[in-house]
Design a protein that fits this description.
The chain starts with a strand and ends in a 12-residue tail after the last helix. Strand 7 and strand 8 (238-241) form a beta hairpin. An eight-stranded mixed sheet has the order 1-8-7-3-4-5-6-2. It has an eight-stranded parallel sheet with strand order 15-14-13-12-11-10-9-16. It is built from 24 helices and 16 strands. The radius of gyration is 27 Å and the shape is globular. The chain has helices spanning 39-62, 70-84, 86-99, 103-119, 124-127, 130-147, 177-183, 201-208, 220-223, 245-265, 293-298, 323-336, 360-365, 378-383, 385-398, 414-434, 450-454, 456-460, 470-478, 496-511, 529-534, 544-555, 563-571, 575-586, and strands at residues 3-6, 8-11, 14-21, 168-172, 188-193, 213-215, 229-233, 238-241, 282-287, 304-308, 342-345, 404-408, 442-447, 465-468, 515-518, 539-542. It has four domains: 3-23 and 155-264, Glucose Oxidase, domain 1; 36-147, Orthogonal Bundle (Enzyme I, Chain A, domain 2), CATH 1.10.274.10; 271-561, TIM Barrel, CATH 3.20.20; 563-598, no CATH class. It is of the alpha/beta class and 598 residues long.
């Protein structure tokens, strides 16, 4: 049966593939592909888990006291019957053999299939037996967790698996940033999630991968079935399940067109970004992992404007990276950029980017009503001084191998800024005492809290440069949770308050002679390129996949074309009308003349 789902378009393009559902089981399930040679081992793990649970339940049944309720013994009988039913084991083995799923993923995938079958049953008693299957599956997952190897991340399709010739799309209720790392270089052609907003981290990572994605699809993971054929229209925020042949061919044609356009834009890689009126523009890249530096260079970036160091801290089973491990990661990026500047942001965790390991302070705050307003980013770093100095030392040591800048996230108080600078000074002295080389690095402040934008002159006296984090700046200015699809329609980069804050930061930084860049999603959004140019921005930092399309607009733009509209919008009687007119002009449309304020 064919049907459509609507969500938020967060990463452009078209993806077509078979649905892979990530289980919503209460137990955390590892999802990874195993090499073909290890398929037999995974089947063995499944068999061992089944035998262990059978033994466990048999022992429980044998130890039941004589006065135990008869229903309890009957329940154990049902669970043993399910375990001894070969259909569950055979179907799970099929997922391992055909898709090269690890045993846990295969079992959770088969549970999703069975759960739907039970949900469709008319008989109430039979329908309620789904809970028994779920309990058995969770026992099996626990048994495998007790004896499972460490989670591995296979970066490519397993060679020799014919079933993998067809593209796959990932469907889930949500994908945490840490989980996205496991899928970052795997076989998925696209993503669909039930929840999320346009600047949630699932959306950001999908854009960084240049993979079509739709978030906020509500019931997507419940109505899409394993192996359904799915079309993801990342331009329209549309998901088509089991499309007709005509619709399928139309989207395949659009895929081919996009491939041609991508190849055409790739020719701009070595072309300097200079506007028609002669203004040079710096095109920088945002990256998450050391291996992403190669993509930045290949895309024609002239440096890294934002290296999100927090991704080094995730998926580590509670162990944070040590100073030497961080140093090696930062040095790898610096060396890969061949002398081009690398801006490393200190760890930005909390809210939608929690760590596996939580300190005492975090445990105290884990149930905070507003985690986005809690202990996160620089606040967390300052609460963990030993960890923070360790990271600063690693960044400073990497500066001996190239041009490094250090960026501090979510500053709002001058006191925080001074504490941070003191921590940097102490870290420098520790390196001097240890005889470890480093160079002086420029230190910058991320402007992503309205308070920081409003007291910018005080911060400019302390820092060498500023970087606008527009994602959080919009979130905090409008009091909108950017990961909540129920209010996603209110997340508005064109809001007059947002535009005035951004313009004010750019203008004040330039007046003070301090470098300013935008590293949030607005930098890579072609709709804002001319607006930011007119505001005076000359440094854009974005995902490598977005550089070519934004550069094309810069090459065709006059940097001052929209300046009168910006000045007029902020001076008008109705800033909403003024900003609507600016938006229309940026999109190449015209609106009636604006009357200035008297």
């Amino acid at each position: 049966m064919s049907f459509q789902l609507f969500g938020l378009p967060v990463s452009r393009g078209v993806a077509i593939g078979r649905a892979v559902l990530v289980s919503s089981s209460r137990i955390d399930v590892a999802h990874y592909f195993v090499p073909v040679a290890d398929v037999g081992h995974e089947i063995g793990r499944l068999r061992d888990a089944r035998n262990a649970v059978v033994d466990e339940l048999t022992a429980l049944q044998a130890d039941l006291p004589d006065d135990a309720p008869a229903e309890l013994s009957a329940l154990l009988d049902v669970h043993l019957m399910l375990l001894n039913d070969e259909s569950l084991e055979l179907a799970t083995k099929q997922w391992i053999e055909d898709r090269c799923y690890n045993a846990e993923w295969a079992l959770s995938a088969q549970f999703e299939v069975l759960a739907r079958q039970f949900d469709d049953m008319e008989d109430d008693y039979l329908r309620e037996r789904k809970a028994d299957v779920e309990q058995v599956v969770e026992r099996l997952l626990r048994a495998m967790a007790r004896g499972s190897p460490a989670l591995i991340d296979v970066a490519a399709k397993p060679a020799g698996a014919d079933a993998h010739n067809e593209p796959l799309v990932l469907v889930a209720n949500d994908i945490a940033p840490a989980d996205m790392l496991h899928f970052k270089r795997t076989v998925f052609a696209g993503f669909v999630t039930d929840v999320g907003g346009t600047t949630s981290h699932t959306a950001i990572v999908a854009r960084s991968l240049d993979i079509p994605a739709v978030v906020g699809a509500r019931e997507g993971s419940r109505v899409i079935r394993q192996d359904d054929l799915v079309v993801i229209d990342g331009d329209a925020g549309l998901v088509i399940v089991n499309p007709s042949d005509i619709v399928l061919e139309e989207y395949r044609f659009r895929q081919r067109q996009r491939d041609v356009e991508r190849q055409r834009l790739s020719r701009l890689r070595n072309t300097p970004a200079v506007t028609l009126d002669g203004e040079p523009v710096e095109m920088l890249a945002n990256i998450e992992l050391p291996g992403d530096a190669a993509a930045a260079v290949a895309a024609g970036a002239v440096g890294v404007g934002l290296y999100r160091s927090e991704f080094l801290f995730m998926n580590r089973a509670g162990e944070l990276p040590g100073e030497d491990e961080q140093f090696e990661a930062y040095r790898a990026v610096v060396q890969a950029m061949n002398g081009m500047p690398v801006t490393i942001r200190t760890v930005d965790v909390g809210a939608d980017k929690p760590l596996d390991r939580m300190s005492i302070n975090e445990l105290r705050h884990e149930h905070a009503l507003n985690p986005a307003l809690g202990l996160r980013a620089i606040r967390w770093s300052l609460s963990e001084p030993a960890m923070f100095r360790q990271q600063i030392r690693a960044i400073l040591r990497a500066s001996a191998f190239g041009k490094v800048k250090l960026l501090v996230p979510m500053l709002a108080h001058v006191g925080e800024a001074k504490q941070t600078l003191e921590a940097i000074a102490r870290a420098k002295q520790q390196l001097i005492d240890a005889g470890k080389p480093f160079t002086d690095v420029e230190v910058g402040a991320m402007i992503e809290v309205p308070a920081a934008a409003l007291v910018l002159p005080s911060l400019l006296k302390l820092f060498d440069f500023v970087s606008l984090g527009t994602n959080d700046l919009i979130q905090y200015t409008l009091a909108i949770d950017r990961g909540d699809e129920s209010v996603a329609h209110l997340y508005d980069p064109w809001h007059p308050a947002v535009l005035q804050l951004i313009e004010s930061v750019i203008r004040q930084a330039r007046k003070a002679g301090k470098a300013v860049s935008v590293c949030g999603e607005m930098a890579g959004d072609a709709a804002f390129t001319e607006v930011l140019l007119a505001m005076g921005l000359r440094s854009f930092s974005m995902h490598p996949s977005q550089i070519a399309s934004v550069k094309q607009i810069i090459l065709r733009a006059n940097s001052k074309r929209l300046l009168p509209l910006i000045e007029g919008a902020f001076r008008s009687d109705d800033v909403w009308v003024g900003c609507d007119r600016l938006r229309a002009a940026a999109a190449g449309r015209a609106l009636p003349e604006l009357q200035p304020a008297s």
